[in-house]
Specification:
This protein is α/β, with parallel strands linked by helices and about 350 residues long. Helices cover about 40% and strands about 15% of the residues. The protein has ten helices and twelve strands.
């Protein structure tokens, strides 16, 4: 019996030792595995902390930028606006963002009656009380300022962006480019054949919107040609869309418009422009995309040349504001201020133009 008890005690002692060793072994194993895992995960933890820190810094920078949300005195109502067709991409991309961020503001684009849409018609509608503010791709004329004064208020133009004025022709036309003076002489009817500017023996058909409806001007207010009438060779079109359609079937055709409106088109070709024939600069980013490559690829705007002023024909983008101490002045100021925020200027560049800040 004593031997049996002694045997049991010995077995229990051995089992106890075995279990103790097993537990210690597992603990050591877990410690080793835990140490390895900590060592492997340490870089990721540090990286995650770094990312979090960067995000905090990004958010801090973002908060310091002006945005649609930071603009004060935005009137909560519905307003009518109109004007330049060159602003179409701004209305689609930028104005939609504004109304998403500031839902209290509703904007409605209004087309003119019995006139083609454009800068001129938009300013006329503003003068006539049919719009609350207007978008323009050209500066105000002396006549428009005088009309406003006669009606008891003034007009202010607030620049919010820049565009180029591009000259486009039929893709089959082989001509190196035009100087600004040559372009003006074409529209005055003094240059009538492409062979006069280094091209083929082909009559020139010049297309344009009517000057009273035009979006852009090639005889600026500071030019000695200001107020000059177009030649009899000019054929008038309703819009840039119609002009592009006409050019595609007119080998000797030419048209000028907002670069943003026509440079991307597949059925026309933009000509380089210059102040002299030795300094021709394209409105598109080189190399030019050939018509047969379009629409798989499209020409892009030469924003660098527009931004640094080397491109010779610039169209400034203005918000035209009625200064009458009323709701029109309030919404005009608010809209211009929205476009001049950091967020607004980025959005204008995303829409294909050049910002002014």
């Amino acid at each position: 019996m004593d031997n049996t008890n002694q045997r049991r005690a010995l077995i229990n002692s051995e089992i106890s030792l075995f279990l103790r060793g097993l537990i210690i072994g597992k603990v050591l194993t877990l410690m080793v595995i835990g140490g390895l895992l900590w060592w492997l995960l340490k870089p990721n933890l540090l990286s995650r902390n770094s990312v979090n820190s960067s995000n905090q810094n990004f958010n801090r920078v973002s908060k310091n930028e002006s945005s649609f949300q930071t603009v004060a005195d935005v009137p909560p109502a519905s307003f009518n606006y109109g004007g330049s067709t060159a602003w179409a991409s701004i209305r689609q991309l930028v104005d939609s963002q504004i109304q998403s961020d500031r839902p209290e503001l509703q904007l409605r684009y209004v087309n003119p009656v019995n006139a083609s849409p454009g800068s001129s018609s938009g300013i006329r509608m503003l003068l006539d009380g049919k719009l609350d503010f207007a978008q323009s791709s050209r500066p105000l004329t002396d006549e428009e300022k005088a009309t406003a004064k006669e009606r008891g208020f003034t007009l202010e133009q607030r620049q919010v962006g820049r565009d180029g004025i591009a000259v486009v022709v039929n893709p089959s036309l082989n001509v190196p480019g035009l100087t600004v003076d040559q372009l003006q002489q074409i529209y005055l009817g003094k240059i009538t054949n492409w062979n006069q500017v280094g091209g083929p023996n082909l009559p020139i058909t010049a297309f344009s919107q009517r000057p009273e409806d035009a979006d852009t001007v090639i005889f600026p207010s500071n030019s000695e040609l200001k107020g000059q009438a177009f030649g009899s060779n000019v054929q008038y079109v309703y819009s840039a869309t119609e002009a592009v359609r006409q050019l595609s079937k007119t080998p000797g055709g030419v048209y000028y418009a907002s670069a943003r409106s026509v440079v991307f088109q597949c059925s026309v070709k933009a000509l380089p422009l210059g102040n002299t024939s030795g300094q021709l600069i394209p409105a598109y980013r080189e190399p030019m995309v050939a018509p047969e490559q379009c629409p798989r690829q499209r020409n892009q705007l030469n924003t660098q040349a527009i931004k640094n002023g080397s491109y010779p024909m610039i169209a400034n983008l203005f918000v035209i504001i009625k200064q009458n101490k009323g709701r029109e002045q309030q919404i005009g100021n608010a809209y211009a201020n929205l476009l001049l925020t950091d967020q607004g200027q980025r959005a204008i560049e995303q829409a294909g133009f050049v910002g002014v800040r």
